[in-house]
Amino acid sequence: MAAPTFRAPKGTRDILPPESARRRALVDRFAAAAALSGFGELVSPIFEDLGVFQRIGEATDVVTKEMFDFFDKGDPPQHLALRPELTASVCRAFAEHRPVAPWKVWYEGPQFRYEQPQAGRYRQFTQVGVEVLGTDDPQADVDVIALAARFFESIGLGRVHLSINSLGDATCRPAYLDALTAHFHEHHDRLSAQSQVTLERNPLRVLDSKRPQDQEIIDAAPVMVDFLGADTGAHFDAVRAGLDSLGIGYDISPRLVRGLDYYTRTTFEFAADALESAQNAVGGGGRYDGLVEDLGGPPTPGIGFALGVDRILLACDAEEAFAPPRTAVSVFVVDVTGGGRALDVCERLRGVGIGADRSYGGRSMKAQMKVADRSGARFAVIIGEDEVAAGEVTLRDLRGDGGQRRVAADALVDEVRPPTPLSTIDEDT
Ligand code: HAM
Fold first, then answer.
1. pLDDT, tens digit, for every residue of 229-287?
2. CATH H-level superfamily of 19-172+228-319
3. Which of 10, 22, 32, 148: disulfide with 324, CB 3.0–4.6 Å?
4. Which residues pair with residue 306 across a beta bridge?
5. What is the largest CA-CA distance in the chain?
6. Where are the domains of the chain?
7. Are the C-beta atoms of 360 and 379 separated by less than 8 Å?
8. pLDDT for the residue 423
9. Confidence (pLDDT) at 427
10. Residues 164, 326: contact at Cβ < 8 Å?
11. Which of 163, 364, 158 is nearest to 255 (CA)?
């Protein structure tokens, strides 16, 4: 009987070299940017108690429709879920460990949402992000938004625009919700059937509807920024003034409500104009001043964002930005004496930090040189019986003029070692 064939599950993908190297470089670039702004990395579990994620909002699609939840084998079994995002996990970790505030952490990793897969929308996708817990200073909002804006710029993405909004807080949002609910009830019969159901659970979510039938009613709906109280209004003004002072461009988008329920005050989204509008959000975030408390911690304001790595790379493709890094080894060892010498030479080079590779299976010189050429290595080191007898190797330049010369086997490391860049020379030496 033929063995069954398997494919990666729907909505998931294998990421092969060299694309995987490009993704790694992107995450490393983000890590460096976050470190420059004083963030340390938080590594948290990929699954948590389902209750942690239920705090994202009982009326959100992420919680009601998209959770990968399961029971473990415990007695009694625990109801767990693969994380759909990381903000709730960060707040759970803060409530558990009570670190000194403000606590500034960055993260990266896979997230899981049971969505209808399409280009740029997956069931497993990768986010990078930051969270700042323990301050409600609007300058923290500005710092966080600036970090994301600078990151997009640093990877060469030009066509990304920032939208911001304020969703108010517990003091001013109820009046807005009343006005919004009254508006939607007034036009109830013209709303789509789905929006009529959403209205009963969370009127804010109706603003998220992309259904054409709802658009006219949404466009005429009252907006939160007209309902901001003195404090939330001043906070929003300070965020805008900070962005202006840094020269970061943005639109105010009064209907930006985001897909998660924990937001208060500042919310924002980055959209890539190079992508289809249904999947053009390359990142988003905002304040969630009640979430830590909802997860059993002390009252602690928070602000952060997450960026979608998969979508950023799609936008980079469309803008021809952020090419894969060169990942070739420096040296390819061609050993026509049986292969044992390639084993030694590769280990010696790798031991001093010089990338080295080789062929296997005792192939002909011609076949090995073909692989060497394809490898992208700078040098081929050729070892034949002649070289062995002389205590030498042949060093061939694979990128320049293709010239070759004999060098003493003992001197090989110095011959192929790349020159030390000036910037890495320690000032004290
Ligand atoms: P989010 O808007 O749900 O926010 O996700 C952030 C980003 O993750 C999106 O802008 C998008 O680029 C990417 N993303 C989301 N779902 C998918 C998917 N199915 N496939 C591919 N990419 C996707 C959050 O997750 C919040 N935790 C952000 C945050 C942090 N708010 C405050 N702090």
1. 999 999 999 999 999 999 999 999 998 988 888 999 999 999 999 999 889 999 999 99
2. Bira Bifunctional Protein; Domain 2 (3.30.930.10)
3. 22
4. 129, 284
5. 94
6. 19-172+228-319, 331-424
7. no
8. 55
9. 47
10. no
11. 163
How far, in Å, CA of 185 to CA of 164, rounded?
27
Neighbouring CB atoms inside 10 A of 315's CB total 27
| N- to C-terminal Cα separation, the chain | 68
Give the strand pairing for 379-383 and 392-397: antiparallel
Indicate if ligand 1 lies below 6 Å from the C-beta of 310: yes
Same fold? 19-172+228-319, 331-424: no
Report which protein residue has its CA nearest ligand 1's atom 16. 121
Q: Is the pLDDT of residue 406 over 90?
A: yes
CATH 1.25.40.10 is right for the domain spanning 331-424? no
> So what's the pLDDT on residue 59?
77
In short, whether 121's Cβ falls inside 6 Å of ligand 1 is yes
Distance 284 CA to ligand 1 centre (A): 6
